[in-house]
Amino acid sequence: MSRTDAQGSTPPTAHSRSRWQRLKKPLTVAFFLLLIVLFTLLARRIDWSEVLGTLADFKVRTLLVAAGLTLGSFLVYACFDLIGRTYIRQDLGWRQILPVGFISYAFNLNLSAWVGGIAMRYRLYSRLGVSAANIAKILGLSLATNWFGYMVLAGAVFASGLMQLPPGWQLSSGALRGVGVLLLALSAGYLLACRFSRRREWAIRGVEINLPSLRMALLQLALGALNWSLMAAVIFTLLPARLDYPVVLGVLLISSIAGVITHIPAGLGVLEAVFVALLQHEVPRGSLLAGLIAYRAIYFLLPLLIALLMYLLVEARAKALRVRKTSRKDH
C-alpha cells in the first residue's frame, strides 16, 4: 500500500514521523551541548580544594557509612520507576529500569529537574520503546511518590513538635505544627481517594492519569518516606554526634522546601543557610558547614560522576546496536 491517500497527500502520521526524524539529530546535539554547559557551570560553583580538604578530615569509616546510605537512597529512588512500570503496565525488566532511575536522580539533584527528571528520562526511556505519554506517566508517578512520602514524613515530624524554630522567624513553632497536621490530612485524603474514589481516570492535556490502587499508594508512601529518611541519615552521619536524628530530619525537610521555592540547582547555599540558621545554637557553625560540604560531595557529586559514566555506557551500547542493525540491513 502506498504511503499516500487517494488524493496523493501524505498521511498526518507520516508527516509527524518525518518531521521528528529531521529534528532528532539537532535536538540530540543541543541536549549534549546543554549538558556540557551545565556541567561547566556546576564545576565553577564548587570549591574543589575545600571539598577535598573537608573529606580528608573525616574518618574513612564515617565516609563509607555515608556512601552506603547514599547508595541505598539512590536505589530506593530508582524503585520509584519500578512502581511506574507497574502503573503503565509495560514489560520492562528491573535491570532496564533501575539505571534510568539512578541516572535521572543524580542529574536531577545537580542540574535541575528539567535536565534529570524530564529530558534524561525521556531520552533513556524512549530508547527502551516507551511512548511519550507513558514517560510522562512514569515521571508524574515518581514525583507523586517523592512528595507523598515527604508530606507524610514532614507532617509527622512537624506535628510532633520536635522542631522548634528560632525566635524571629516568620513561621512560629505552633504554625509549623499546624502545617504538619495539614500535611497529614492531605496525605490521608489521598489514601482515602485511592481506596474509595469511584472515578479512577482523568485526562490532562491529552495525557491520561489513573488513580493508583490503595496498595500502590501505600508502596509510594513507604518508598518516598524511606528515601527522605536515608537522605537525613547521610547528613546525620556527617554532622556532630550531639545532634539528634529527628532534628536533622526536620531541618532537611524544611530546607528542601526552601530549595524548591528558590529553583536553584542542587539548592546551592539554601541547604547550608537553613541548617546554620536552625542549628548554630546547638553546634559550631564550622562543624555544620564541614558536614554539609561532605554531604554534597558524597550525595550529589559522587553519584553524578557515576551516573555520567553509566549514561556514556548506555549511549555507547545504543550506538553499537544501531551499527549492528545497519550492517545487517546492508548485508
From TrEMBL:
Segments passing through the bilayer: 26-43, 63-84, 96-118, 138-162, 174-193, 213-239, 246-268, 288-314
Gene Ontology CC terms: plasma membrane
Subcellular compartments: Cell membrane
Membrane topology (UniProt): Multi-pass membrane protein
Organism superkingdom: Bacteria
UniProt KW keywords: Cell membrane, Membrane, Transmembrane, Transmembrane helix
Entries under PANTHER family matching the protein: UPF0104 MEMBRANE PROTEIN MJ1595 (PTHR39087)
Stated name of the protein: Membrane protein
Organism: Pseudomonas chlororaphis
